[in-house]
Task: structure prediction
Amino acid sequence: MATQIQDSASQIAALNAANSSLAKKKPTDANSPGAQQDKFLLMLTTQLKNQDPLNPMDNAAITSQMAQLNTVSGITQLNSTLQALSDSMAMGQSVSATSMIGHGVLVPGSALNLANGQAIGGMELTKPADSVKVTVQDAAGNTVNTMQLGAQKAGVIPFAWDGKTDAGKVAADGAYKFTVEATLSDTTTDPATLTTTNPATLAYGTVNAVTPGVKGATVDVGTLGDFALSAVKQVM
Result:
């Protein structure tokens, strides 16, 4: 019995000493691992002070609780380390992305800008196509030019328009838009059966600036707008 009371007194004395040390520490973030440990020690001290001296807490129970706290603290510190690593990678990605400034890129969009008889666009095919057709339209939605690009492999496919209309005339410089139609023969059943899809269209623009962000870098592609770095399908 005396041994139990002595053990209880020793536990409280040790934790009181720890709490006195904590009281001298500078305030920390309430969500930090150190602050969580401080709260735990304060709660444990209070629990020991109010326990039955004749039936004190088992040393093994206290050790177990301390071990659990250390596990939680370790996980919190690991998360902090991973976050720091992620932030570092994002910053490195942003720095690397600055090399695209001044270069042309293909990003999601259907705009086609004709300047000096030259316009560039693109598409992304999820599977090979037997034939691909690009239809260029003016601002009013009138068809200006139709290009047959033939068979194409899957992936990002850029194309160039020379500014000529279907009638052979030179189109005026300015803003146009385009659509893409891909045709695939169904050779698994009937070769005469054709499947037509509309692949994703890609607009061409020049990268003016790169801005770091919490979720990664964004690139300023002029009149096309800002895009996440992952949206850039090809650098040209």
In short: The two ends are 83 Å apart (CA to CA). The longest helix spans residues 59-97. The chain is about 35% helix and 30% strand. Residues 1-6 have pLDDT under 50 and may be disordered.
